[in-house]
Design goal:
about 210 residues; alpha+beta; Umud Fragment, subunit A; 2 helices; 12 strands; about 30% strand; elongated; disordered N terminus
């Protein structure tokens, strides 16, 4: 952030001259303006307040800090990790396969509970899972974010993802409760994209 501190130097004016005299007398010169000692401090406070207000607006309308509860997104996200989610991005761009998103639980009995999972299939996609191997539109999905020790052998019969719905799965497949249990998630329940882990320092970085 650039801070404008202003100037404490006094200003002088030489524009008031007598057109009838080539050498103005000492008495006709205007007195120099007194130094404005508080100008720099006031400008600094103004910029600080503007920056603080902008930060509040960004956090309120664009980014939201959240805390991860659970281990279903290991190895990238650990229990109690703090991260920022972008609440605005899906108003201007589409949800894509592989995005890590936050959504409200689809069960009507627990609408305030939020989950964080990875998008596996989009509306209209044909999905099936064969002993842990995920196929979308007939193609085996390459999933480098799922280590071998976190895979499982669950199977799901082929299905077509409904319009305005998304199929979600956790990266720790053997313990994750996800769309294999509660089905595809309606678009209206998705409210953010995980973008950056800021705490703890060992997990600092972009969420991929």
């Amino acid at each position: 952030m650039q801070m404008h501190t202003g100037s404490d130097d006094p200003t002088f004016s030489d524009s008031c001259v007598n057109s009838q005299s080539t050498v103005p007398s000492q008495s006709s010169r205007p007195a120099p303006a007194p130094p404005r000692k508080s100008t720099g401090l006031m400008l600094w406070l103004r910029d600080l307040l503007i920056s603080a207000a902008a930060s509040v607006l960004i956090i309120t309308f664009l980014y939201q800090p959240v805390r991860v509860e659970g281990t279903s997104m290991l190895p990238r996200l650990e229990d109690s990790d703090r991260l920022f989610i972008n609440k605005f991005v899906y108003h201007i761009s589409a949800i894509e396969r592989g995005d890590v998103v936050v959504f409200r639980h689809p069960a009507p009995l627990d609408p305030q509970r939020s989950y964080i999972k990875r998008v596996i299939a989009l509306p209209g996609d044909a999905l099936r899972i064969d002993h842990g191997r995920v196929y979308v539109n007939g193609n085996l999905v390459h999933e480098p974010y799922v280590p071998p020790q976190y895979r499982d052998s669950r199977s799901v019969p082929e299905m077509v993802i409904p319009a305005e719905s998304y199929y979600m799965m956790g990266d720790h497949r053997s313990i994750s409760s996800d769309s294999r249990d509660f089905g595809p998630v309606d678009r209206s329940l998705i409210y953010g994209k995980a973008v950056f882990v800021y705490w703890p320092a060992r997990d600092l970085g972009v969420v991929r």
